[in-house]
Amino acid sequence: MELAARLRAEARRAGERRLLVLAGAADRTRERAADALAAAGVTDGTYLGPADAALAAPVLDSTEHLPLDRATELLGTTREAVVVDCQEACRPNAIGRAVGAVDGGGLLLLLTPPLDDWPDRRDGFDATLAVPPFERSDVSGHFRRRLVDTLRAHRGVAVVDVDTGAVEREGLTDPPPRRAPPDPEPPEDHRFPAAAYEACRTADQAGAVAAFEEFEALVLEADRGRGKSSAAGLAAACLAREGRDVLVTAPAYRNARELFARVRELLADLGALADQDAPENPRRLNTGDGRVRFLPPAEAAELPEDPDLAIADEAAALPVARLEALLEAPAAAFATTVHGYEGAGRGFDVRFRDRLAESGRDVREVTLATPIRYAPCDPVEVWAFRALALDARPAVDPLVADAEPETVEFRRLSSADLLADEHLLREAFGLLVTAHYRTEPDDLARLLDAPNVAVRALLQGDHVASVALLAREGGLPADLRGRMYAGERVRGNMVPDVLTTQCRDERAGVPVGWRVLRIATHPAARSRGLGSLLLERVRSEAGDRDLDYLGVGYGATPALVDFWADNGFRTVHLSTTRNERSGEHSAVMVAPVSAAGRELLDRHTGWFLRRVPGMLADPLSGVEPDVVRAALRAVDHDGTVGPDTADGAPALDISELEWRVVTGTAEGAAIFDTAPRPFRRLALHHLAGGADTGDGSLPEGASRVDARAERLLVLKALQARPWPEVADALDYPSTAECKRAMGRVAGSLVDRYGTEAAREDRRRLR
Q1: Is the pLDDT of residue 646 over 60?
Q2: Rounded to two decimals, what is the model's pTM?
Q3: How far apart are CA 604 and CA 602, in angstroms?
């Protein structure tokens, strides 16, 4: 493989990377890959391919082997070459992670079927897109067709047909040699040793190190290869030398290996490394008074031994709850990838930035733009950004700034439409990436190829102002529904799956619906009702298509629950565990479209009302009270009347004796703890019965139950938290005052919902 040697020689001279595509029969591509690695002199490479080592055998002599589903282990690592075997499955996430691991002067190899045939073949990744009731043959090949087009169009990409030996493209660009960047200067009055700045490769990196000299909360953002991990490592070494205890975490230690390598090197150069025989890949480095230590995210979140500061490397790949816990340290830094391959970094941007802003910390932000591992405008980076839409962006603000419900056009965007219009694809996908924390390269393939996915948008002129990603669910055959009921998980059918497996309704997979996977409105056009208009049009189309419901599942916040409730969605479930990425409990909501959808909602509204008191007292006892208030307000109190409801609200079912406890508590003659049950029933009846804390009418003599009082009902009556904890959460000056507040709430509830006998008992006690 002389071409591989020439590609690597050019890559080294330019400080860039090159991409070599070996297309043809699977066994031949693997054999030629081994030849290419040998010819290019690669000694440190990784093969991403089938888990079966026998299939990978020709490539394994000179590389480590990682199955495609373990490509995340490449995050934060550097390789001379990475081979991505796409013969069994073309996984966009794996391709992106591989690109990020290849060093300047290195090679990325893609092993593919013949390029002309590849879009029409169906592989293991396609099987993940073929969710029931669809088959793999229903999956289109639009993503791979687009991928092939980019491989044949971009600079620095060589294509070889291994079956014929023909070189379709050489991929050589004859660039000038890379110029060495000027040495960065340390800032004036710098506190860290000059050696730390001398170790920096760019001015960006030196600026990032300087930011660590004094900070409360620090965010380092960069595309891959900009040296943010190294900058964090140099700074951590300086802080440890000053006697600080620096706690480092990352998805896995290998992701922080570069950081620790810089710590070790700088401390050794400064003569500050207490153990000169420390291993090459240590998890703890000591300076005597200070140290830098690594802990996995779950352990690091506990901040053991009270570190002076915490650093999260590859922060975008960590759950938001873990990141939030690090803010309890005296200082915390977060290094995150802008166009990441671990979920596009949106968990950090979409969810965690709000938490950071609310933390009260002085937040510094540093962006590193200049590449270190490879030259600017590296052709492989340019290709990857285009092929995987990693740099997809919404339309620029002026193009949609005038969007109003009266000016936008509703469009059904087929995958063929998106494939044919690159600008439309990038605007739609870019808007989804910007607005959601879990959008990743795999989602681009899902958007283009999955048979159950549909895209709907509102366009201002030719530009996307609002977009929704929908997934068809339900309509499942009886045998599959039976297996689901017995515990089998079914991909791509979230609402039927939850209602069948967790809520034990075997009929939940019969109705057919659209689940809203994502919905996003352009930041320049928000708060104008465009999202609601888009949902209204989607719901109307669902009716025209004889669908039964719209569904949604998401990490519940009060504002999001209210948005979905305002658009006709009603709560049917709250997850008992927190989402690992968002750190929030998920809400499942349904908006009926047909009679079958209405029957599904009615059935699960009643079941939810029976379940939720027990859930709130145990697995959901830690949910934020405003989330509970919003979720209960969003129960279908207008349409459900049955044995567990009365006038559309949960039935009170309170005995005369229980009413006496409530009235006695209101007047100070009894206490809540004697009989909590009636308070629980009243709280549920009030919160899930359409309670209005605004200016709505009230029964004569009744006082309003304000937001703080409702939070008290959630925390004590529904979640059964201890009185001191409730008093502290609601800022009551004492437990006694908190209990008196419960008495006042009890009086309001008696006036509003009490029987005539209960109201008379209260009057008598007064």
Answers
A1: no
A2: 0.84
A3: 6
